[in-house]
Structures are given as structure tokens and as C-alpha cells.
Amino acid sequence: xxxxxxxxxxxxxxxxxxxxxxxxxxxxxxxxxxxxxxxxxxxxxxxxxxxxxxxxxxxxxxxxxxxxxxxxxxxxxxxxxxxxxxxxxxxxxxxxxxxxxxxxxxxxxxxxxxxxxxxxxxxxxxxxxxxxxxxxxxxxxxxxxxxxxxxxxxxxxxxxxxxxxxxxxxxxxxxxxxxxxxxxxxxxxxxxxxxxxxxxxxxxxxxxxxxxxxxxxxxxxxxxxxxxxxxxxxxxxxxxxxxxxxxxxxxxxxxxxxxxx
Length: 261
Description:
Order of helices and strands: EEHEEHEEHEEHHEHEHHHH
Strand content: 15-25%
Helix content: 40-55%
Distance between the termini: 45 Å
Number of helices: 10
Strand order of the largest sheet: 1-2-3-5-7-10
Largest sheet: 6 strands, mixed
């Protein structure tokens, strides 16, 4: 039986590939459990400094596997509590950058799984759909939080209430994703991006994730204080010392991602 998530390491990058191509990588309990295990391992491994999340076959992720949720009167909240919310929280809290490489269909919770990453790139042939309205549901997996922050309230409401499919090009134009890339060589380009991130100051990226995550709920004074506290911690990291030294020596820095002594 094929693994639900393929796990591969290239340098300091851990590649996670959703692996149910016959179902467009729809999410079921097996996929959720495999992702939880994979992220737990990444959290423990200091040698891994970036994550690349993608899908096998012609889709990134078609959302929840509806063949396992047939019929009404289901407690969907229990599934969200058990699987979706912990996954999104884990991805946003991971002190390492996550790149989502959307290689095809990204629908429903699959679209929002991508948006939970730090940087989202999509192939030109990919598309995004907040498909929940089509089956009488609301966007979950963080969708109602991500959408208005990324594309604004008007577009968020349109995407959620109409469930229209938008192209990767339009998603990039709206600011839903970082960049749309050519189909040809897409995976290699996404891997190159993740590899680039893995060589940057890991502690600084972790602090950025924390600061950006807090910004929506903080007032200016709170955010300024948080920036001060985080910058104080960054000033004690080996990568800050290396960055300054490399700047003065006019060379490329060799960041290690090491924690303060």
C-alpha cells in the first residue's frame, strides 16, 4: 500500500508530497496522521531548515475526501478539532519556513492548506477554489482568517460565497499567493526557493513568523514591543554575528541557523 505522504530530504530541505493522486490528494485520516508525524519529526530535527509541501500527480489537494463524509448530520467540528486545526496551527508555529508548491487543483481545505504555508508558489496550470459553498459548508482550515488578510474583505466574500475557481495567475495578481511560475521546471523552481530559504538565518525567519502572526491582533504599541523583544533575541544569535562579519568582509554569509548560546 502506497504511503499517504512521501517524505524526502534534500540538503536542509524536507519535502512532503501528498500521495493520493487517484483522489487528487484528498485529505483523509491517513494523510492527516502522516502529516502530523512528518511535522513532528521536522520540529525535532535542527538539520532541517525549510519545508517544501506539494502534491503527487495532477493536483495539489482537492480538500477533504468526501467519500468518507457521506450523508448529513455529521459532526464535522470533531474532525476539524482532531485534524485540520492542529495541522494549521502546527504549520504556522513551525520555526522554519514552509513553501507550498501548488502543482494543480487546490480546492476547499486543500487551498487553505496551501495558504497555511509561509510562501505559496503555483504552476501556471494550477487553480484555487474555495469550494465549501458547493456542499453547504463554510471555509475551514483557516480559510476565513487567511482570505480577508490576503485579498481583502470584498474578494474574500466573493471567493467564499460564490466558490468560483481562479487561476494561479489571478491568485498571484490578487496577492493570494507569492508567485505564479511556468509549468516547465515548476518543481525544480519551488525546490530552489525552499533551498534558498534553508540557507537563510533560521532563527530570524522563526521570529518573523511569530511577529507576522501576532500583527493582526496587536495594536501598534504591542507590535513595536514585540519587535523590540524579538530583535533583542536576534542580536544574540550566531547568524547576526556572521551576517555583520560577512558584510564587513564583503562576502556571502554562511548562516547556520544555530540558536543563541
